[in-house]
Design goal:
Length: 494
């Protein structure tokens, strides 16, 4: 928290502003979600930092009937006491009643002190980075598995409390700004799909002649008869273009090495695997290594090699990329290398054809599906028909297409940067809100209007007295936390 709070604020803890926690039972469930009319118990995945997901539940076994206080109600503040590292301590506000859903033992209901802190203000306060850092530091368990937060550690989370009227202004301002942020993020999130379609359109235009439709074509290339059988019809392309099976323009096809990747970077040679072919290009960010040997020399890739992923999931089998690096590398057995006769066919044009809409449709037709993976062997790859512009037109297609794809890449980088900034905005907004910089403070307004106001310290002390007198509990029967007003840490000057 800030060393200096705004005038009229007080630094407290979660335990100071709630009467306690309410937990559910460890109920038996049947595994699947509750059917309409059945009772269900929430899964921990129902509570995230973003929203409440009531559909994340498990149906109860017959005979289990919820007790009234276990049911999920409108206005409930729910917090996960056990979850994965990034979600332990996540808190949501329930917007409507869910009488068919019950509270589990790993999710707690916060019981705010009536009249002390607005529920939506508390929700926002618990989303601040200071609270999230507190939960991260105090959760037990390893970072890659389930972590736990005890109630005392939760109760010790730091909460900056403003006077009630200021709380309401903060909530209104934060919610309005977050609505704008979420709207912007929604628009940003749609751009990658638009770019994906744009890239597909570029490849389709490149491989059908539309990208060079005003090109002066003087030579007519020979076409070989290709039996498409059940394959998709070829797209229309210029009558001057040739056409034939891929092996007519290929020097050789070669399967990769089956050697184990059990070496390290210092002693081994990088091996390209199916995961290194991404979006029509090689991604060298995650490499494995094979021990160096003379036998491995036959599998070293060269610039211009077309790498075809012959084994993968049904959706990804057949993805292709061209080698551009001169770094010594080899390739794994579930990749086929096609070394082309570049007097007829440029590697980039062949790769674009394989990655185009028609190429992906071809892969779906010729693949052989197994239990979890699909396969397209080199024989099927060799027989694949491919249209063939002249070399000069291929070069022009590649030049124009590369320029358009580079534009898409540049836009994508800007979108990623904008998305990262948008992801940081909620915490920036909350930081300003809980340092008194987002809305006018109640102290300043009261001074300008010549009136008195109730400070946050006076507010919590008053609510604490009401709790002691039995009038301030949210439900009237939950155990209180320690006495409020005895110790609130730093307080602002008045």
């Amino acid at each position: 928290m800030s060393d200096e709070l705004p005038e009229g604020w007080v630094e407290a803890t979660l335990g100071d502003v709630i009467t306690g926690f309410e937990a559910g039972r460890n109920l038996r469930a049947n595994g699947g979600p509750a059917s309409p009319g059945e009772y269900g118990v929430l899964k921990i995945s129902a509570v995230t930092w973003g929203s409440f997901k009531p559909e994340e539940n498990k149906g109860l076994l017959p005979g289990d009937v919820p007790k009234p206080h276990e049911r999920i109600r409108k206005g409930d503040l729910l917090i996960t006491r056990a979850n994965t590292s990034d979600l332990v301590g996540a808190v949501v506000l329930v917007e409507r009643d869910h009488p068919e859903l019950m509270l589990p033992d790993k999710i707690l209901r916060l019981l705010p002190r009536y009249g002390g802190v607005e529920s939506r203000y508390l929700l926002q306060a618990l989303h601040t980075q200071a609270v999230r850092d507190h939960f991260e530091r105090n959760a037990t368990g390893t970072s890659d598995s389930m972590r736990n937060l005890s109630q005392p550690k939760m109760a010790a989370a730091p909460i900056s409390v403003a006077p009630i009227p200021e709380q309401r202004r903060i909530v209104e301002a934060v919610e309005a700004l977050l609505e704008q942020v979420n709207g912007a993020k929604g628009r940003i999130d749609r751009v990658p799909l638009i770019l994906k379609r744009f890239r597909r359109a570029v490849l389709a235009a490149a491989c059908s002649g539309r990208l060079t439709e005003r090109w002066s074509r003087v030579d007519r290339l020979p076409r070989r008869d290709v039996d498409l059988g059940e394959l998709p019809d070829l797209p229309e392309f210029p009558e001057e273009w040739g056409c034939g099976p891929l092996d007519a323009f290929t020097v050789r096809f070669q399967y990769g090495t089956s050697e184990k990747a059990d070496a390290d970077e210092a002693t081994g040679v990088p091996v390209l695997r199916m995961g290194n072919i991404q979006d029509g290009a090689l991604d060298l960010g995650d490499l494995k290594y094979i021990k160096r040997s003379r036998e491995l020399d036959a599998f070293l890739v060269k610039p211009g090699d077309v790498l075809f992923n012959r084994t993968n999931s049904p959706e990804l089998v057949g993805k292709t990329a061209v080698v551009t690096t001169t770094r010594p590398m080899t390739f794994a057995s579930y990749i086929v290398r096609a070394q082309l006769n570049e007097q007829w066919l440029r590697p980039e044009f062949a790769s674009w054809w394989l990655n185009s809409g028609w190429g992906r449709a071809w892969a779906r037709h010729v693949r052989t599906d197994g239990v979890s993976q699909s396969n397209i062997n080199a024989t099927k790859l060799a027989a694949m028909p491919i249209p063939l512009p002249s070399l000069t037109e291929q070069d022009e297609v590649i030049r124009r297409g590369t320029k358009l794809l580079a534009l898409a890449d540049a836009i994508e980088r800007r979108v990623q940067a904008a998305s990262a900034r948008a992801d940081r905005l909620p915490q920036a907004i909350l930081s300003k809100a809980f340092s008194g910089e987002l809305v006018p403070t109640e102290a300043d307004l009261a001074r300008a209007e010549g009136r008195a106001y109730e400070t946050a310290e006076e507010l919590l002390a008053r609510v604490g007295r009401e709790v002691e007198n039995g009038a301030g509990n949210a439900t009237g029967s939950h155990r209180p936390t320690r006495e409020v007003g005895q110790k609130h840490g730093r307080r602002a000057a008045r």
